[in-house]
Write a sequence for this structure.
């Protein structure tokens, strides 16, 4: 069974995300999702501590093979979306971006398209190993929420050769849910992401 973790900016995009998710889980015997947590649980974890929320999100990623980032306007800049992306890379999940700005919310409104979250993070090499980077304050900086090196053999894509940051979007596909008929095609997009990562 294909287990997919959906990562998204909760407050503005949860309605859009549910619409995407509900069209995907048509054959529950073949597909299941993670990442659709009750908001009260998510908010409680945020209030406890950063470490408790990190643990909560890592648990959510367990037993998944693909992480689908549902991108609205500001998803690319959200700390916890970035953490879910980082942990997905460390775990070896396939990754893809699906733009949901054109999906209407409960009031029938769409939003401005944002940047690709997978283009705002990447990896680079130093003499001490391979590290995660994020685009922050108009420049690439070492990723704050996971500072250990990543073993080269655990990456499913070619490792960076030097200190130049290689964005995850270089190796991952992105799609537009509305313009590319996501209702019919998201199954294939997720399977492609899984295949690219050898999952």
């Amino acid at each position: 069974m294909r287990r997919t973790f959906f990562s998204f900016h909760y407050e503005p995009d949860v309605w859009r995300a549910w619409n995407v998710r509900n069209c995907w889980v048509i054959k529950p015997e073949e597909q299941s999702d993670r990442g659709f947590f009750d908001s009260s649980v998510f908010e409680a974890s945020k209030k406890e501590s950063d470490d408790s929320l990190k643990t909560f999100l890592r648990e959510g990623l367990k037993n998944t093979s693909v992480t689908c980032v549902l991108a609205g306007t500001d998803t690319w800049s959200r700390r916890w979306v970035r953490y879910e992306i980082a942990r997905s890379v460390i775990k070896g999940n396939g990754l893809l971006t699906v733009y949901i700005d054109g999906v209407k919310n409960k009031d029938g409104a769409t939003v401005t398209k944002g940047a690709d979250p997978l283009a705002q993070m990447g990896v680079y090499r130093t003499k001490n190993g391979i590290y995660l980077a994020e685009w922050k304050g108009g420049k690439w900086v070492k990723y704050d929420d996971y500072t250990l090196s990543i073993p080269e053999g655990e990456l499913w894509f070619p490792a960076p050769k030097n200190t130049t940051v290689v964005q995850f979007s270089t190796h991952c596909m992105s799609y537009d849910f509305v313009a590319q008929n996501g209702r019919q095609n998201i199954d294939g997009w997720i399977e492609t992401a899984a295949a690219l990562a050898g999952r």
About this structure: Strands lie at 2-8, 31-34, 66-71, 94-99, 121-126, 129-136, 139-142, 166-167, 173-176.
